[in-house]
Amino acid sequence: SEWIGEVEEEQFRPLITKEQAENVIKAARADKGERGHPSFGGVLADILDLISYTGLRRIEAFSLRWRQIDFENKRVVVEKEKKQQRGVQRAIPFVGQGNQGSKEAESFLKKLANEAKKRGEYHLDGFVFVGRKLDKEGNPTHVKNLRGLLIRIAERVGLKNFAYDRNRAEKELRQSPHLGFHDFRRFFITKCVNSGVEENIIATWVGHKDGGRLIRETYTKYDQSVGREMAKLVKY
Hints:
Blueprint (H helix, E strand, L loop, with lengths): L17 H12 L11 H14 L3 H5 L6 E2 L4 E3 L13 E3 L11 H14 L11 E5 L5 E3 L4 H10 L9 H5 L10 H14 L4 H8 L6 H10 L1 H8 L5
Antiparallel strand pairs: 1-2, 2-3, 4-5
Helix pairs in contact: 1-2, 2-4, 2-7
């Protein structure tokens, strides 16, 4: 402790609800841009939907290529995994196969593909979310940074300072109060936990190497609605 000093207590971050997530995505789709620039709101909405369905990290979603969406085997394959294990290919199956709603992962991804085909932008090696700039060889690049747009949209739907922690502010500890892409990744994990998927399975989908320990200690603890439902099962 003399070498490192005191370890900062973990910042408590609320879990975004389904209603809040839907409000942000809806507002992003309706965004008109500002100062005459065309809006990337639709792209942001699609990325947030994608993360909500797959639990991909921000950069994994931004740089996703069409060849990684395996419609035949109904899964999204992660090619460049963070600290990839030798011989292990991380893949997230299309979730929600039992639901009849129009916003299942598979129908959402097929809609993206069909829209890209209509625009003539569907190529297996091409990016799903194309940015404005070209690389040195004249090829399209993926979207780079939509952080500011997400913060602006979140404020618009009443989620300004979504994760502001008064405790940390009083202790002058750093914090990240804005809604971020990682909150939608946590939304996916929470949805899986609430649906009864085993933590070690979810861990493989989202790329955790701890066998589900983080999910067990964090997501089941933070979502108090799960505890309330479990309490109803107790018999005296």
